[in-house]
Amino acid sequence: MVPELYRVQRVRQETHDTFTLELRPQSGAARLTFKPGQFNMLYIFGTGEVPISVSGNPTGATLVHTTRAVGRVTHVMSRLRAGDVIGVRGPFGAPWPIDLARGHDLVIVAGGIGLPPLRPVIYHVLAHRGDYGRVVLLYGTRTPEDILFRAELERWRARFDLELHVTVDRGTPSWHGNVGVVTSLIPKAPFDARSAFAMICGPEVMIRFTAMELERRGVGTDHIYVSLERNMKCAVGFCGHCQFGPHFVCREGPVFAYDRVEDLVHRWEV
Amino acid sequence: MKTLAELLATHPFFRDFSPEHLELLSGCASQQRVDEGDFLFREGEVAKAFYVVRHGSIAVTAVTPHQGLVTIQTLGEGDVLGWSWLVKPYRWHFGARALEPTVVVGLDAACVRGKCDQDSKFGYEMMRRFAQVMASRLEATHLQLMNVYENRS
Amino acid sequence: MTTQGAAQQPDARPPAFLEPEHFDDVIQILRRRGYRTIGPTRRDGAIVYDEIESAQDLPVGWTDEQSPGRYRVRPRGDHALFAYASAAHAWKRFLHPPNLQLWRAQRTNGHVELVADSAPPPRYAFVGVRACDLEAIRRLDQVMMDGPYVDHVYRALRRDAFLVAVNCCDPSGTCFCVSMGTGPRVTGLADLVLTEMVGAGRHFLTLAAGTASGQEVLDELGRRAATDEECRLADASVEAAAQNMGRSLAVDGLREALANSPEHPRWEHVSKRCLTCGSCTLSCPTCFCSTVEDVTALRGDATERRRLWDTCFSVEFSYLHGGSVRLSPRSRYRQWLTHKFSTWHDQFGVGGCVGCGRCITWCPVGIDVTEEASVIRQAVPLPGSTGPMTE
Predict the structure, then answer these.
(1) Is CATH 3.40.50 correct for C7-242?
(2) Count of structural domains, chain B
């Protein structure tokens, strides 16, 4: 339960409220290893601890987390600078089914701050491109200013082996891309609905609508995976906060096969 | 050179439409070219047609009090544009502007409505498809209304 | 329910006979063996569990009266040692402390160091663990140390604890251990199992060993074996208690009914009375939820990470991104009751309720879980129906 101390190597402001931290162990030892979709508990000295998914490359040198300043702890976190020290416990939770999806088409649907937990999947898939069929990344945000990792997305869009579509809920005069909710990209996306694996991360409402749209397209609910969020204090199943019906999101999630949580996702105040 | 019926048959919106119904529909169809930046129609005008997009892309726009003209949706190849022709008083709820040189097939509203009235089976097929268009639009509006990505703190 | 089987008595020796006035010998033996003896004692008008130095600290001659929202102690007019039901506290207070330091952080010249408390935990002897509470400890074991992660504080306390269990002969008006299959007879593993026989002009104790260390204590005590007649009398007291439950709950189909009734109108009904105060979760012997807090020294260079009991009845409990998931009292009551009687089964293979009745007694408005659960079990409405409930 005692965190390991990491030093902030670099801070990158992604949007007005979202930032990326690159961390290295203070001890100089190797960083912890993780699977795409897993999260760590990040502890800010004297402030508190929050669960945040790893957003970096599974084979990268540093431990990378991207988050939005939304609560008390993340607001303090947003003021961290290179050289500051934070505590890290992890990794925790069930990863995305990157092994199960091998040999199949892959549809990755991200909404808003839901892209960072999916980015390690994209790194993995691009590093093992031959293992997968067609790969589609659909990403929706509120406005063009909210698009995360823009330079990287532009690089990915130039590739011939990745189909990438970005859409925004509200266009601006300088935005020439898609306007519309992320679900609107699904009907025309090139993948074989009968065998594709889908991975969804974003606000719970967006997950609900996206899963329904994928179902409409013909993707089986056992091939749809979603990443859910609940309050977490311990990340190991003791504190009780993350319960989602019978599930402990910290241990059984955050990534769930949709058919395991479908009924709960459509229920209020669970 | 394809006939209009053949063009319509390849469009996803009319998938599984019977050849007779396609023939019926093509009697109301005409191909149109829209230059970049030009409006196909504007909000408030009488809705005299609906369109299926063949090439290019179209922004569905709304006039808002503070921001002026905003894009609420973009449509491209394979999409269908407009449902205001179907419900009274047949005025466009939104505008449509080409984002690049765009080719559409326009279906004359009065013509299609007349054929729907005459052939109820054809009418039902049309209604079923437009119900899906309206449901999708409603779902999208619902999602946008909830502003799901908003930072609530 | 089985009687005390051979599994609990390695060499199947008959229980020892003990006069009540010599029960202090047991406590002193445990104290000499280095245990901090914790047992029932009368304080602030209630029977609570706290450190006891001798048998005199026990609530000798006292009993309790419990009903929904009501708790009283009264003298019995005899010298019974264990003739009452669930104490106001549960044993979790000692095994899963309500306020615990996890670690400390010290910052010196920009260098941070984290230190976990390494002091050896106290060795407790729990004297007077009722059948329901013994089962509650077992269910806490599943949560805190039998899963993929282990709470080391809990495990250290639990591993060293010596348990003197009590076959319960005096259930209260809110007890329903028979319905939950957890009592009144002790069936779980304890070092010693005690039965107190009071009545018909007799008053004595029988003590059976359930473990080798329990047998050592019995050997040191050096008492004669109880006669068959004495065993039979003690047994009859426990048997009578089983017929004397204040409440009952039909559990057959309850788990499924709760899982399938998230929109039952009864949730709204109960939420109109529920104050969401969390008394039930604090008094419950199996509720394990906790939160963490940083306590920072004024100078700001040292901070303590502390774990505190928490309750799923608070709005903050489900806080996520500037809002809470369970805003309505309805959803919070539903979460608690459904967890106890339904999703706990999914998580741990058994339910989370042992029928001790504390949540009923200590609810300030007297909400009775057996009643709420029964209504939902009996009247599963058709999907989409919002018709009136049957009661």
Answers:
(1) no
(2) 1
Rounded to a whole number of angstroms, the distance from the CA of A173 to the nearest CA of chain C is 30
Token pair of B132, please? 């899906």
* Residue B9, both tokens: 């048959």
For A78, residues 6+ apart whose C-beta sits below 8 A from its C-beta are A17, A19, A69
Q: Do C143 and A237 touch (CB under 8 A)?
A: yes
Domain limits of chain A?
4-92, 106-265
Domain A4-92 in CATH 3.40.50.880: no
Chain-wide mean pLDDT for chain B?
90
**Contact between C290 and A239 using a beta-carbon 8 Å cutoff:** yes
Which residue type occupies C220? E
DSSP string of A53-101, one letter each residue: EB-S-TTSSSEEEEEE--SHHHHHHTT--TT-EEEEEEEESBPP-TTTT
Which residue among A48, A238, A269 sits closest to C290, beta carbon to beta carbon? A238
CA distance A71 to chain B (A): 7
Strand duo A106-111 + A135-141: pairing: parallel
Fold (CATH) for A106-265: Rossmann fold (3.40.50)
Domain membership flag for residue B153 = no
Question: pLDDT tens digits for C131-157?
Answer: 999 999 999 999 999 999 999 999 999
Contacts of A251 in chain C (CB under 8 A): 148-149
Mean pLDDT, consecutive 10-residue segments, chain C of 391 residues? 41 86 97 98 96 97 96 96 95 96 85 83 96 97 95 95 97 96 94 94 96 96 95 94 95 95 94 97 98 86 93 96 90 98 97 98 97 88 46 36
Report the SS3 class of residue C323: strand
| pLDDT tens figures, C36-69 | 999 999 999 999 999 999 999 999 999 999 999 9
Among chain A residues, CA nearest to C295: A46
Q: Is A141 close to B149, i.e. CB distance below 8 A?
A: yes
Chain B neighbors of C323, CB-CB under 8 A: 152
In angstroms, the CA C165 to CA C155 distance is: 19
Tell me the shortest Cα–Cα distance from B8 to chain A, in angstroms.
Answer: 17
